[in-house]
Design the sequence.
């Protein structure tokens, strides 16, 4: 599944990862903290180990979230 997300500055969302799944976050614009790691436009993160993900916008941000099967 692919989700397009828009966040306003200081808005936070949380995701819970299910076993046998991983995720890929592709930042299109703005800046976010993903579990404390700063990502800027064009950055990406592959998420495999973390069970809970917190994404907090440091500015207005747009990103894609790919929910993928673990291989």
Sequence:
């Amino acid at each position: 599944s692919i989700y397009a997300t828009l966040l306003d500055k200081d808005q936070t969302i949380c995701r819970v990862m299910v076993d046998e799944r991983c995720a890929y976050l592709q930042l299109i614009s703005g800046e976010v903290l993903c579990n404390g790691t700063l990502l800027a436009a064009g950055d990406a993160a592959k998420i495999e180990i973390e069970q809970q993900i917190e994404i907090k916008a440091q500015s207005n941000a747009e990103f894609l979230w790919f929910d993928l099967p673990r291989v």
